[in-house]
Amino acid sequence: MMQPAALIAEINHALVSAFDQLNEWFAAPGPLRVYRPASGGWTIDEILEHVALTNHYLLILIEKGATKALKNLNNLDLATELANLHFERDKLNQIGQHRAFPWIRPEHMEPRGEKSPLEVAITLQQQLHQCQAVLARMPNGEGVLYHTTMTVNALGKIDVYELVYFLAKHAERHVTQIQQVAAECS
């Protein structure tokens, strides 16, 4: 049985690592951040905006899930749920790999250039702190008491901890994409 403290520490580490790497790109020179890849893909600024947009929608699910988990609407036994915990680490880790599986993102998660890079950077930092606050509210494993259906990579029903880890891995996926754009620009 995985201990909640160890799982929360792992998730927090993934969050901090991914967000720190994203944050570094705001200091990149302007011409690099607006370079459009030959494939016509997104610029670095657009990728960063996409991550913030996606986080916004994921955090709505995370907050709702955390609230429901803490209320334990299904009257589940925490000890039993923790004993049966199977953290979908392998499938979730694939979320962090650019182009590891086919996925068409919803249109409302596509960047529109409506926020400045500074606004996006501030939003990402607020989102990191929001994720950490959610984890802090569920220190004893309560995140396993509520599940959300996630169609990405056929994940199926995932608990609140897995959903926060998903957010971290999604950010990591786009760090790789940013690195590829930067390498092409060089």
From TrEMBL:
<feature type="domain" description="DinB-like">
    <location>
        <begin position="35"/>
        <end position="178"/>
    </location>
</feature>
<dbReference type="InterPro" id="IPR024775">
    <property type="entry name" value="DinB-like"/>
</dbReference>
<protein>
    <submittedName>
        <fullName>DinB family protein</fullName>
    </submittedName>
</protein>
<dbReference type="Pfam" id="PF12867">
    <property type="entry name" value="DinB_2"/>
</dbReference>
<dbReference type="InterPro" id="IPR034660">
    <property type="entry name" value="DinB/YfiT-like"/>
</dbReference>
